[in-house]
Every structure is written in C-alpha cells, then in structure tokens.
Amino acid sequence: MIFALQDGSDRNTRTLAKPGDIEPLHVLRSEFHAILMKAAYTHGIKTLAGKKFVSLQEKGPEVVINFADGSLVTADFVIGADGVHSAVRKCIFPDAPLPIVCGRGFVGEVELGQYANGITAQFDDPKALHMDPIGGNSFYHCTYAPNSVSFDIISFNHPDQQLPLDSNANTDWSPVKNLSEERGNLARDVESWGFKRNIVDNIRVAKQLTPLIVLDLPDLPQYYSSRVVLIGDAAHGILPTNGQGLNLALEDAGTLGDLFGHFKNAQDPVPRVFELYERFENRMYRA
Question: What are the coiled-coil residue ranges (predicted)?
C-alpha cells in the first residue's frame, strides 16, 4: 500500500500483511453481507430480517429481548453488534457517554476509464492513502474490481464546520440526492486542499457519494453486563470506513467463540467467558 502527502510527494510503500499472512481483501459491503447471510443459512443459523431492537431484560440465566413489532425473544445471552449508536449499549449502560463527532466526509465509488466530459478516471496505484497532515484531511482509495474503485474522504479539521451533509442525508449511509452538485462541490474542496489533479478528477465523475460522520466513542465502564456483551463499534470508537467496525466485530466474535470453546462442558459458561473477554479487550484497547 502507498502512503503519500496530498500532492503525491513523499511516497512510502508499506506491506500490510506479515510473512505468511493472507493479503487484505477489499470487497463491497453489500457483497460481503450476501456472503455472510449465505454462510449463516448453510450452517443452519436462524436470522430474522426487518426486526428493530427496543429493549431487553436480564432475568436470571436468560435475557428477554423486545422488538418494535411487539415480538419477544428469550436467549441465554445477547451480543450487541449494533454499531456506534448501539441501542443495546444504551440499554445496559444508560449513563455511558455518547459518541463524539471528530470528523466528516464522504465515501464514494468511481468506474475507471474515459468520460464524455474529457476526464480520464485513473489512479496511480491500486491502493493508497494521501494525507494532508497540516489541514487534517485524507483521501483513501482501493481497487475492488478491475475497473471499479471505492474511496473515502475525511476532514478532521473543525468537525462542526466541515464538509456539509446533504440536507436529505442521515447517519445510515444514505447516498446524496443531487450527485452532480455534491461531487462538484466536493471536488472543489479537495482541490483547494492541494490534492492531486487525478484525485480531484475522479471525484468529479464518481458514480456514488455517501456522507459519513467520524465518531469517537469514549471508554465504557466495561464491555458487558451480566448476560449481555458488546462487540465491534458498539464497544469501541473506530473509523467508519473500509468496514473496520465490521472487521472488529468479527474479531471480537472470534474471541468469544474461542472462549466458549474452552468452556463447552461447563454448566453455565457465560459469566466466565464474559469476564475473560473483558480482560482481553482491556489489554487490546485500553493498554
């Protein structure tokens, strides 16, 4: 992967994978979601779509979950993986601090090639991060198909005055409504920050732009209650790009799975598993 300043200077190449590791794989969120759902179905894991969590009650060795449609589900334990605005977190830690806005930006997609307006969409490298350390701006892109590239632009400088969100947008990854106008405005902003010309041109022909907000999550008192545990960005503040929250949730889920495997013969492994998970997370994220 290439790291460089916004104008392309001071290039630095770094290998993200250690010897023997699998190289990072870039895949669209929608495609990865389809893969996960298919795997869940193949392994007989029941999934319920269209459900909205409302509240839960811990009752001894069980947890009762209430959904907006009035239905109830009783479980041995609950894993809250519902993102930085986690309703599960609010339920078990009602006094926990709220997420803090520390940046704004956009995530987008562009098809490489020649366009009718004379722009040739192209990048110098398959994957790169261009940074404006003084201005507090960054541009990251990655090729996920032969002629398809995803990118994200983030400004950390004065977040309350940064890139304005589309008036119809929300925090649920809704694409901008007026694509032509928004990409023109964004291209002018990025150009004023001193970014390379081909980066600016690629923004001008982006096929999709979605506003994003970068949120930091202050440390929680702990990551679990009696029989409810938090994973991913429901528990940790992290950049909302490149699926990092999802990847972190998968890593946390793997940790829980390994721990449950060590106590599979225990009558009630949940208290011990959650205690050890807390200790592991503290070493990882609070050291």
Answer: none
Backbone angles phi, psi at 87, to 5 degrees: -75, -30
Q: Which two tokens stand for residue 274?
A: 């959650």
DSSP state letters, 6-54: TTS-S-EE---SPTTSPPP----HHHHHHHHHHHHHHTT----TT--EE
Q: In the CATH scheme, what is the code of domain 48-99+217-285?
A: 3.50.50.60
Q: What is the pLDDT of residues 263-280, one digit of tens each?
A: 988 899 999 999 999 998
Are 2-15+100-215 and 48-99+217-285 equal in CATH topology?
A: no
Kind of pairing, strands 53-59 and 228-230? unpaired
Structure tokens at 244: 């990092």
Spatial distance between the Cα atoms of 110 and 119, rounded to a whole number of angstroms: 12
Digit-coded pLDDT (tens) for 149-197: 999 999 987 555 443 333 333 455 688 989 999 999 999 999 999 999 9
Q: Where are the domains of the chain?
A: 2-15+100-215, 48-99+217-285
- How far is C-alpha 11 from the geometric centre of its chain's CA atoms? 26
Q: Cα(135)–Cα(192) distance, rounded to whole angstroms?
A: 11
Q: How far apart are CA 94 and CA 90, in angstroms?
A: 5
Query: What element of type H or E holds 91?
Result: helix 87-92
Helix 179-192 / helix 197-204 crossing angle, nearest 10 deg: 170
CATH code of the domain made up of 2-15+100-215? 3.30.9.60
Find residue 25's DSSP bridge partners.
Answer: none
